Amino acid sequence: MTSFKDRSLPSSPSTRSGRVVALCGGVGGAKLALGLETIIDAGQLVIVVNTGDDFELLGLRISPDLDTVLYNLAGLSDQARGWGRANETWNFMAALKEFGGESWFSLGDRDLALHVERTRRLHAGETLTGIMRDMARRTGISAELLPMTDEPVRTIVHTVEGDLPFQHYFVKHGCAPAVTGISFSGADDATANPTLMRALADPELTAVVICPSNPFLSIDPILAVPGVRAALQRTAARVIVVSPIVGGQAVKGPTAKIMNELGLSVTSDTIAAHYAGLVDGIVIDSSDAADAASLDIPVHVTQTLMRSAEDKRNLARAVLAFASSMDETPAAAARLTGSTR
Amino acid sequence: MTSFKDRSLPSSPSTRSGRVVALCGGVGGAKLALGLETIIDAGQLVIVVNTGDDFELLGLRISPDLDTVLYNLAGLSDQARGWGRANETWNFMAALKEFGGESWFSLGDRDLALHVERTRRLHAGETLTGIMRDMARRTGISAELLPMTDEPVRTIVHTVEGDLPFQHYFVKHGCAPAVTGISFSGADDATANPTLMRALADPELTAVVICPSNPFLSIDPILAVPGVRAALQRTAARVIVVSPIVGGQAVKGPTAKIMNELGLSVTSDTIAAHYAGLVDGIVIDSSDAADAASLDIPVHVTQTLMRSAEDKRNLARAVLAFASSMDETPAAAARLTGSTR
Questions:
Q1: Positive or negative: CA dihedral B325, B328, B333, B334
Q2: Interface residue of B73, B93, B110 to substitute, partner A, most A CBs within 10 Å
Q3: Domain ranges in chain A?
Q4: Distance from A112 to chain B by nearest Cα, in Å?
Q5: pTM of the model as a whole
Q6: Chain B residues within 8 A of A94 when measuring between CB atoms
Q7: What fold does the segment set A19-62+142-327 form as a domain?
Q8: Does B331 score more than 50 pLDDT?
Q9: What is the pLDDT of residue B251?
Q10: What was the ipTM of the complex prediction?
Q11: Angstroms from A292 CA to nearest CA on chain B
């Protein structure tokens, strides 16, 4: 298992792709998810996305991370802005302000269509899973794009200024208040997406990739859904995390700030420790190569910063090759210590 | 009572405006409503709008006639297109089509803000009356802009191809199927807007103007709400209808087509007969001056076609002057025959 579909190259008759699960949040995760989608056979990639950031605004159900991944994989995302759609206009928001509507969260005119149509279909009784599957199909995405659960899980950020719903912390307060903790309201009562659970239990599963997303805000909500953590511990596939730290900083967002506020060093050591017992290996950026020595799990050092489509594809290839390279090593034994298998 | 506020002229210290009620539907009605608003003192004009065309689309509550009047009075309407907002963009609709959303009814990006915010506020428990009052205030409208009722009334068009909800008849089918009748679902259980009922009962009310809207589709729904017809018969004010017929044709929309299909002649005679017992006088267009002889209620002949702001103001002035001119005539007695007063 060394070759994967590559859309940029003529397909080789000898290629075969394994089934892969990717766990991810928004922007950083979406980039690697796109890289994975471009090299993995249609239907073989299951992308499971954080919904802890979801919220209701103006009566609409917004799923920021799912939409970021959808837009990236569909080629609809705005690369410069980093969120939302390309060729976006903002006339809805301008008019909404005239009418006194809530305007702290920017919704582009094109983006709005997804929220309105999703909300309508949810109210008509469809599941978020079913709706996103259809949206992905309509926009030509070959991967399965899934919410971690169809039940409401809401990330609450505990700060020195009080508890804040995630989007209030992230957008309204611009991540300014110092974080003291994070919790996931509703997670205990949520049911993990059955497609995720089936994929993790599949003996043919090749790899689980934890994308370079914020561990606390993007991946922990997924792990907080009952059964997911245990299923990761039990899976036959190698579990690889791509560290979101590059050169001792987070590429984007409040990851580094939160790590500082929680008294954690902004290093891949902290990331590895965070996922201890869950992952078989970690991929870290070349600029942090010096950290490799202190890590007590297998490490692959490569460029994790993804600026171009090629960067995304290269990182995806490197991660899968790293997982594949472990097949004959005893590395998994360490992860499986204490598991129920 | 011969002078009214005119924004285009320096205000005269001797002006005083009476309280006026206008009943109207969409485009044609909105033009005269705007003319009235420009000459009547702030707070003295009550515009009561048809909500029989209201419907739910994409989970949003759309009130086409109310919005047309709002946009016209707020100076936000698109004059060339005749509906919706000026400087409109259509990126929401384009994206909605990508996601398979219902797209037969065009919602502009700016226009959408009103629907989203109205729907949110309705779901939060506010009345349509309260919401539209606030929207009118926010957009600088000095008149009271009211739905005929806060309860759902839905115009059903009976056609040779079956019964159609109004917007399906009007937009989806482009008014093509021949009309055999019209009914107003929910009207019997609706409560007339209390502000309308108070205004009609006010002994100080100067005039009631039935705007040049489609009598069957725009005014009849208002008259179908229990109590409105009787209150119009009892009101102390003169009730004047402005005929929507110009030169034996309707200016816009399916009025003439429907009149033909219902076996009615497309003349102001038919309009006068339609409102028999309710109106004290009719205003008809100069091009139909020959019809005046056969009308058995007082007639004022003037230009009713409104192309410019001046046309709207002039017609508004003419209508109010016509109502005022009746104060010393016995004309009202004819209308009041058979009333309960």
A1: negative
A2: B110
A3: 19-62+142-327
A4: 6
A5: 0.89
A6: 110, 113
A7: Rossmann fold (3.40.50)
A8: no
A9: 80
A10: 0.88
A11: 45
